[in-house]
């Protein structure tokens, strides 16, 4: 899992992990935001997941409300992305997965001042924004996981499903409001019928542009910085050795890897805080004259 160089700009990161039936929705982003309120009986479910063994079970049960200026994009760049698994997608402008930049921590009936993704007539992928309802020709396949990404860069919005560009349009609107609904849009009558995994919202950064992208093959990282280097043995030859990173304050193991036997290279995703780095100088992992130092991640 590579570190995220834009982690500091992440407004919300919901992996949807936890025990079955849990109503704790952990934000793994830098601000660790909790919902301002919860509607209905939305919960964590282990019945379906893309990563981590669990996801947010909406299934028209409820929604999460957030209220924070971190969801006010202004006229700047942003990215909203998630894995969605639709159970039902039929109807006209039904089954919305989320609504971002609503007027408050509640539904907004103004689709022109909010950004939403929903199932449009004919089970088509569609979004609402200040540019209006933008409906694609791509049909939603129910019962399967799909990666959705909405990215605005310099006033152009790119919408991708499973890495393919399905919509592109101009949108320079000032999204100044600060609400977010996860699990529905417009009203409780339009709740999402499905599961949501690995929802990430990035304010100020458009992560994707172009004709196609690569859908993530792992959960979005919680870490911002890395420690890397080359490892040599006693004879100064590049070698394979175990490298571990520990939290300097708590002593907890953060990450571990083995350097490349040919190049000696290693890289660890460790976050922002100062760490202890331990390099085991014995190929069997025995502690003996090992390198132990303090490192500030870069």
Tally of DSSP helical segments: 0
Q: Detail the poorly predicted runs.
A: none
- Overall outline: elongated
Name the quaternary structure.
single chain
Rg, alpha carbons? 22 Å
Mean pLDDT: 88
Number of strands: 21
What structural category arises from helix and sheet content? mainly beta
Succession of helices and strands: EEEEEEEEEEEEEEEEEEEEE
Strand fraction equals 35-45%
Can you give the helix content as a percent range? under 10%
Largest sheet: 8 strands, antiparallel
C-alpha termini separation: 16 Å
Task: Describe the fold and architecture.
Helices cover 0% and strands 43% of the residues. The protein has 298 residues and is mostly beta strands.
Layout: helices, strands, pairs:
Layout lengths: L9 E5 L22 E4 L2 E3 L9 E3 L4 E6 L10 E9 L7 E9 L12 E6 L3 E6 L2 E8 L5 E9 L2 E6 L2 E7 L8 E4 L11 E10 L22 E5 L11 E6 L5 E6 L6 E5 L5 E5 L11 E5 L3
Antiparallel strand pairs: 1-15, 2-5, 3-4, 4-15, 5-14, 6-11, 6-15, 7-8, 7-14, 8-9, 9-10, 11-12, 12-13, 16-19, 17-18, 17-20, 20-21
